[in-house]
Protein: [LysW]-aminoadipate kinase
Amino acid sequence: MPAQRPLVVKAGGNAAVDPDAVCADVAATFRAGRPVVLVHGGSADIDRLGARLGVPARRLTAPDGITTRHTDAATLEVVQLALSGLVRPRLVACLHAHGVRAVGLSGVDGGLLRARRKAAHRAWEDGRRVVVRDVHSGRVTGVNAGLLHALLGAGVLPVVGPPALAEDGRPVNADADRVAAAVAGAVGAAALVLLTGAPGVLADPADEASALPVCAVPASGPPPFRAGGMGLKLVAAREALAAGVPEVLVADGRRDRPLTRALAGAATRIELGGGDG
Structure:
């Protein structure tokens, strides 16, 4: 295990997030001696590739108002192609260009991410409640932290993304923010930094000046802010805090030095509240 507790950084898949800026800053942090695990999403690349292949994106809104990607069999293929063929190699190559040895891993590699497959998904569509059963997604239940620590101990930066490995031995999609939270808890991270296409958690989704310095998330129940994909980020933040990660930050991934700025205070710090939402 590295002498210092690692940082876990999640590079959002939002098209506005600057992967070059993220990689440059993560690489500089790593070269300075701080172990980092980089977790990534890829929503923009998944949507673009799906459109080219004739697999339209479909999103489901749960009863609590949180929106997620519906992953049917065809979408799972697109997810794997986009993440393993486009997003992860791009990040690994960029880190190498900045002088850092990096290795890209899906959750299937080495059994890195274990997940429980969802049997069905309850959602609202066209004003009515539906149960969607063609589901190829799951929730991460285990992380091979030893593999990540071994790579860090060898001076290699792990770049991690979905899919995960379900109980039946087949891959399932998993939300990348929640993957990052599970990884942060498993490796004993000093902090989880979620880099996104906004300066933090916005009190008003239409006003970036409304970014909050601190956002309290209830210990259970729906989070207070759900627009623009923030709901799942706050759920992930809650899971990381509950797993013992002492600091969770939501910060702007569109600027230069995004990790450095976030750790210096240019971020929304997430805290656990006492209510249930």
